[in-house]
Amino acid sequence: MLQAIGLTSAPHRGRPPAVDDLTFEAGPGRVTALLGAPGSGKTTALRLMLEIESGRGVTYFRGTPLHRIPHPAREVGVLLGDVPGHPVRTVRGQLRMLSAAAGVPASRADELLDAVGLAGLGDRRLGALSLGMDRRLGLASALLGEPHALILDDPGEGLSPRENAWLHGFLRAHAAQGGTVLYTTCDPKEAARAADHVVTVDAGRLVSDQDAVDFSRTRLRPRVVVRTPHAARLAAVVSREARAARRSVEVVTEAGSRLSVYGSTCAEIGDTAFRHGVPVHQLADEIADTGPATATAREAEAASPGPASPASGPDAAPARPEPTASEPEAAPRTASPVPGPEHVPSIRRRPARGPHRPVRYELRRLFGVRTTTLIMAAVLVVSVGFSVLLARTGHAPLPNVLAAWPAVLPLPPAAVGAGLLGALSFGDEFRYPALAAGRGTVPRRLGLLMAKLAVSAGVALLLALIVAAASAEALRLVYGVDLVGFPSNAAFLAASWAGLNVGCAWAGLLAAGIFRVTAAGVAAVLAVPVLVVPLVRRVLSGPADHSVLGLPGRLRELAWVQWPDGMDSWVMAGVRVVAHPVGAALSLSLSVLICAYVFTSLRGRVRW
User: Fold this and answer.
1) C-alpha dihedral over 280, 282, 288, 293, to 10 degrees?
2) Run of H or E including 204
3) Residue 284 phi/psi, 5° resolution?
4) Distant-in-sequence, close-in-space partners of 435: CB < 8 Å, separation ≥ 6
């Protein structure tokens, strides 16, 4: 059971709210269509229900608001618009990545590929999918958590009749298993054909809440549309002749010079207009929704035989469907009392929850596209080439040779590559928001941030190790002698090399997370050697009055656990790395970026 009560969107720039006091229900085991013309507030209503737009009202999903459900993906599946995903990612890779976000096994992706008819297209790129395939993938994404309710925004838009028939058959099968289906549409004939229940909205307000049979009988009727400059005169003549002939004819006067005549034909209306000398500018048969019920239409419905239809109009309350056999006997949550209009709570815009398995999600996101491997391969090739060229002259120091860091470059290729991969970690997340399918922007969760920091650090260390090893092997292969010896300050060099790459990766990641674009992350990485390092050099240019010698011993005295004596060299190596101008610049930049990240997150009212 899905209950939406008093949904009202926040007014924007003095305009009336797009959704105004909208209340309706979507029962289990039924397909409910939210019908309205474009701009009638259907999408806004869904966003209010999902708490991704601010306003007033409450929506109960089997008796519980969405923000109180521990695992929303297991209660409601959402499809708003197209599938957001990197265009070069495969269909199977996209679903497996979202499986990690939803906390379900990766095997669930293959099960859903079979269910939605994409079993043979698992290796197809997202950018190569047709509209129908994309909509099937969107359904598979919504069903990952095996939700009870499905909420879809105009899922049949642009589909062929064959794809549309498959889509509605799939939704009806989900409802037949006891699930709740709510989708929006602007086609009244489709709503009458494919839905069990039709909720009609106009200008954000409820117009009617009816079963599909009653909707077809009372609101989806054949009519004759007439345009004439003498609308009132023609309406009176047609009504008078219909009463004289004892025929059931209803004439509805609409805006301007337009009439809608129910129970008659074009030929009869044309003959009547000709006999009475009334000019007619348009005369056509139509089958469409009649729009908000007028007084004449309500009187006709009340007088017509058959079961009484639910009340309609902006102030009509929705019909409360009786419990059906398809509703689960032991629902996991009980229905909450319906609040009165004066107690309707406000809807706070809440970001989507982060992935339930953030490390697995981040690994699948990183290595699910070929960009990562291409960057790493390009860094390796360029680094090996620079190492061979630097070793040829014999003037460059050995650490610079192994790191492939010519003096003319602000950073070695490995550090630039690590920074670029870190920037893409958040940049692609905001450009292709797979985490936020229909749920707003990418959430800045602490778990997701920690996972990105850990994975980017691991990739940066792996890249640093591969570059150093490949450079040493290339020197031995090209020049035939082992030019690499084990230096006495190996701990300092290793810590410096690792810290440089990890620091660049984190700088790119944090900057891209703050500004939500990859270019900002790359700019932050390049700003460290170009802007921050010269500033630090000027600060540290004076003579030092104090020394950090003996720091490991003093730390050992403060520590509860005594570390081995060999750790002293690594501690001093770390201290020397931070004291180096480049290390100090990176430390300063990371401190500023972390503070800025926390500030922007708190300002956006993100719940950590």
Assistant:
1) -40
2) none
3) -150, 150
4) 101, 352, 354, 355, 361, 429, 442, 443, 448
Q: Angle at Cα 258 formed by Cα 255 and Cα 264, nearest 5°?
A: 130
pLDDT at 567: 62
- Looking up tokens 């707003």 gives 440
| Tokens of residue 406, six digits | 């010519």
CB 504 within 8 A of CB 411: yes
Residues found in the chain? 608
**Helix 358-367 with 446-479: angle, nearest 10 deg:** 40
Contact 589/527 with Cβ under 8 angstroms?
yes
Is 50 exceeded by the pLDDT of residue 533?
yes
Residue 120 CB partners (closer than 8 Å, separation 6+):
none
356 exposed, middle or buried (CB, 10 Å; 0-12, 13-18, 19+)?
middle
Instruction: Single out the residue of 336, 384, 341 nearest to residue 66, CA to CA.
Output: 336
* CA–CA dist 596, 590 (Å, integer): 10
The residue to which tokens 């503070």 are assigned:
595
DSSP string, 426-489: HHHHHHS-GGGTTS-SPP--HHHHHHHHHHHHHHHHHHHHHHHHHHHHHHHHHHSS------TT
Are residues 126 and 86 in contact, defined by beta-carbon separation less than 8 angstroms? yes
Q: What does pLDDT average to over the chain?
A: 83
Residue 429: exposure state from Cβ atoms within 10 A (0-12, 13-18, ≥19): buried
Amino acid found at 120: G
Q: How many CB atoms lie within 10 A of CB 346?
A: 11
% of the chain exceeding 90 in pLDDT: 52
Q: What is the pLDDT of residues 43-74, one digit of tens each?
A: 999 999 999 888 999 999 999 999 899 889 89
Q: How many helices (H) and strands (E) does the chain have?
A: 21, 15
- Whether the CB-CB separation of 295 and 232 falls below 8 Å is answered with no
Query: C-alpha angle with apex 204: 198 to 207, nearest 5 degrees?
Result: 40
The pLDDT assigned to 576 comes to 59
Beta-ladder partners of 261: 224, 251
Quote the CA–CA distance of 42 and 183 in Å, as a whole number: 9
Tokens found for residue 560: 């509860």
CA–CA distance, 51 with 604 (Å, rounded to integer): 15
Contact indicator for 58, 2 with CB cutoff of 8 Å: no
- The residues with which 262 forms a beta bridge, in sequence order, are 250
pLDDT digits (tens, 9 = 90+) for 486-507: 677 777 788 889 999 999 999 9
Q: How far is 258 from 73, CA to CA, in rounded Å?
A: 48
Could you give the CA distance from residue 169 to residue 288 in angstroms, rounded to a whole number?
Answer: 23
Beta bridge partners of 150: 77, 181
Q: Are 441 and 351 in contact (CB under 8 A)?
A: yes
Task: Supply φ then ψ for residue 60, to 5 degrees.
Answer: -105, 125
| Beta strands per DSSP E along 75-120 | 76-80
**Res. 292 pLDDT band, cuts 50 70 90:** very low
DSSP code at position 510 = H
Alpha-carbon distance values, 494 to 468, 490, 497 (Å): 10, 6, 5
Residue 258 CA, distance from chain mean position: 43
DSSP letter string, 20-35: -SEEEEE-TTSEEEEE
Global pTM?
A: 0.76
